[in-house]
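Annual report, structural modelling task.

Input specification for the iron/sulfur cluster complex:
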Amino acid sequence: MIQKYEKLFINLNDFPCIAQIQHVDKIFIDAWLSRTLIERFEQKSYAVIETLNELNGNWDETFYRFLARNFGFKVNALPFELLAKAVPQQIYGKHKDNVLQIEALVFGSAGFLKDELKDEYPAKLKKEFQFLQQKYNIQAIDVSLWKFLRMRPQNFPTMRLAQFAALIVKANHLFSKVMEISNISELRALFENLPVNDYWKKHYHFRKDAVVVSNQPGKPSVDNILLNTVALFLFAYGKNTGTQFYVSRAIKLLESLPPEENAIADKFTSAGVKIDNAFASQGILQLKKQYCDAKKCLSCGIGIKILRQT
Ligand code: SF4
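The model returned the following structure:
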């Protein structure tokens, strides 16, 4: 058994069973990935529950914080999170009938309205924000925290902020809405066709004009939010409240989303593993991080299967 183990798994490859995994039944791999997926979401839920406790059990506000982080992708997650902390949802709620004020709160708190702004729209935003900032004692965040480098213009933080403001205009208390919707198309529709201000049809930034391809979040961005925020919250809520119904809805949602494309998924695909959906690709990420990288092949269901069938 030791010799078999050494032959199969002791090599310098960061994915030791790369040559054997193709011989394991798909049904068996899928079952193991279900387990690693649940592990991954349980671990990710700790951060949700920590913030939930900080916010005195307010699920809506916790969801809003995570959603904001998610809007920034990896590069601008931090300033988006700081923005959500600077302006809680409750403040937007008081101005829900005034689109300009919501946009002013978003861009002003994000630090983009400090400079001299020549266009009429940002000048109006600036004026609104000066009043709102005093009223709510808002500390605008440092604008230099926003990263634009090596980014496609449609992903510029200014575009993402415009979409974020539009989402707040479209639907307040989003988590309550997410909980009510079980249909995936309706859920997706919540984050699509956002009422983004027309200014963002001709600008990627306040500083200069441009021809904009689209001011709406693309399908991959919406999928990313459904995966990293919506599914995570349904899962965390279901686990935390002992409501299996929401855990099952999270899993169903993951099964209906396309698999993520990344170097890890590519590696497993090249080795012959079929990754059908986001449920499997998330399971793969956990498998790689917690088992393959740690060389825990003897604690991995796939590793044990390979040893037994060799
Ligand atoms: S941990 Fe499992 S999947 Fe990863 S290399 Fe080892 S046997 Fe293969």
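The chain is about 60% helix and 0% strand.
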